[in-house]
Amino acid sequence: MAAETIHTSPRVHYINANYGWKSWLFTRDHKRIALLYLASVTLFFFLGGAYAVALRLELLTPQGDLVSAETYNKLFTAHGILMVFFFLIPAIPAVLGNFLVPLMIGARDLAFPRINLLSWYIYMVGGLFTLYALIAGGVDTGWTFYTPYSSAFSNTHVLAVGIGIFITGFSSILTGLNFIVTIHTMRAPGMTWFRLPLFIWSHYATSLIMILGTPVIAITVLLVALERILKIGLFDPALGGDPVLFQHLFWFYSHPAVYIMILPSMGVISELVSNMTRKQIFGYKFVAFASIAIAVFGFLVWGHHLFTSSQSIYAGMIFSILSYAVSVPSAIKVFNWTATLYKGSISYQTPMLYAFGFIGLFLIGGMTGLFLAALGLDVHVHDTYFVVAHFHYIMVGGTVMGYLGGMHYWWPKISGRMYPEGWGRFSALVIFVGFNLTFFPQFIAGYMGMPRRYYAYAPDFQVLNVMSTAGASILGVGYLIPMVYFIWSMRYGPVAAANPWPSPSLEWQTSSPPPTENFEETPIVTWEAYQFDEQMMASSQRSAVSDELPASG
Amino acid sequence: MLWQLPFLPVQASTFAGRVDTLFLFLVALTIVVSGGVAGLEFYFAVKYRRRTPDEVPPQVHGSMKLEVIWTVIPFIVAMGIFVWGASVYFTLYRAPKEALEIYVTGKQWMWRFQHPDGQREINELHVPVGRRVKLLMASEDVIHAFYVPAFRIKNDVVPGRYTTTWFEATKSGPFDLYCAEYCGTNHSGMIGKVHVMEPAEYQAWLSGGAVEGSLASRGEKLFQEQACITCHRADAQGRGPLLNGLFGSRVALQGGATVIADEAYIRESIVNPQAKIVAGFQPLMPTFQGRFTEERMLELIAYIKSLGAPPQAGTSGAGAQGAASGVATPRPSQTPK
Description:
The structure holds two protein chains of two kinds. Chain A is mainly α. Chain A has 17 helices and no strands.
């Protein structure tokens, strides 16, 4: 086989530095931990996806026929919990962030390598515990756990799943802490704050939310557990509690959590747009501070989930106006990405196609957010499929497109191999088409009045649901394609150069894959972020060095 | 409304047109903004496509002027939408003073309705066209949400408190009613119909069917069964405060605060009597939490609402019935905090 003959004179890098399961499970290398996370979040993504398949199949027909109502409720709960807590929140920070934060700032590793490994173990313990609870018994409260249903009425495994989420939260907190300390203290000489790639700025903003927001969801879960076990009256009105209090606490974390999902993706898109057009990002400082603004304002808008909850009209107005305020920095980013294209040298390689897909889907997701923040209009569309469509455009259209775009862009660095370009472009197209076919009809169904979390629905909505299910089948295939060719390329892909695109960013100034210590010697940064010029182009190692690793086959 | 677009649900309330106008404006805005950005990107992507592998384009770092423009304009537009959205919401939030008042109780997994004259319905609500209908809603168990897409109204029905919403139907016909807040196993089965009827038809419906007394008269029975009457005496000589003329009045509490006696206050005084003690009275009343259902609670409240001014009030069921069917509440009740 060609693969065997390649390793005639293997260069030592982080993957082949040592072998055996111990060298992975006890590693302190941020790059290896990133790969551990990659395997784990991929597992949870496809598990969550399997639940989605079951949901979409049930919804093919208006009447409930495939599964029972109780099972259906458990399915959408499991889908939400797995996707939100175990895929969307950790995906980009824990995989790409873990791999790239030290490389991009010129550091050897994160500030606390052992804590980094610990965060993965915490994630796995929480994840496997939750998974066991979901499969062994299941929980039927929805991922939102609204009280008093979750605290006093549901007979399912609320406690077990709550404990799983509680545990996993700590991995988020530790990752955020690690990033903040690393970005503050471990930047290479010359790497000033305004020379940082925007990926770093967005991860910094994300980390702030992780360490400030996650404790609140942990406390909230704990309070639900206390009410369930000890019958302390916190949320159940029969015990003197207030059920709406839970919603405030829940969304105080869970709305910023949406920014934990989307900010890192925006960071990826800034990198892709700049590098695929070979241009300095337009309005660097505005994009950087927009991330911080989103993180800060994002904490002040949770009440827009409660416009019909009997919250006071004054609270409603404040949350509405702040929600409109938080839309502005997102708009600024989109405009700056668009302006970056102007007079660029635009490549149509796979990462750029994903970036275009991100911008298109994020635009629709963001614009429909304006519908939902409008008090009088939200009354009609709240808790309908309009909301379901909106947040999938942001969380799947936004986050997953950015994640996959980033995976393609950095795959040569991560694996040392190129993915197949033709298949890459094809997958981007399939996912974009499948996604829109799945979720666009849900906007219409929602405005027509189809409530979410309905096991059986009025026959008028069937055509739209069939379209959704058809789209979901395409989308599912679209997600499988990259998984297959990424695995294929690890062995058979063309050997990647150190800096194939090329880019002035630090992670590309070391070999692919990088050595365990990241850089042969500490880099000294004398250039600006995204400084594309002839000198950079000339000095970049853009094709695989043949005497080192012959690209045979 | 004049227009009926295929992707809009039928408009059957005075509120629906206003919501749809805002919706269509936002759809147009979305098409302009998304189409504009996508069109520009497409144009750039074609015009500035990479022509040679080593190409380095001229660098542009940014433009303060453009940044200000695309920060300020979206902000102004966003604030405009905020004001528009809030003004639509105000209409719905402020329940009208003159309205037919119907009590709604959500229970896993059904809707129950109580009309002032005593008609009771499950999952079906009959209302007249062209008349304002105010709903006072309570839940027996978990949070539900009362949602009628054709009216564009939705409000959560929250256990432990009363919430309100209102509508004025403009079209007759049956319209779908959904529970919009996930409430457990049979959530999607918690559906019903709102039957909007022409006035004459509605009158016929009202007079048909056996009715065992008005809400207030049933409440009065409960008032006696539960022995409320022993303390809350009509001659103001009881150990509890006089209830005649209470509803809508301002009540002085111990400690100097005052409270408007609305439905929420009365309910609280029944389930949690120690929460607010009326000035000059002892905290003697036991809690009645869990002693009767929310539906019966509403009957009791209907009875207390029906009690007019002190002198002639309180004992005759016929008198109470007359007062209750008038349904003009002294002031719009507010959603409790």
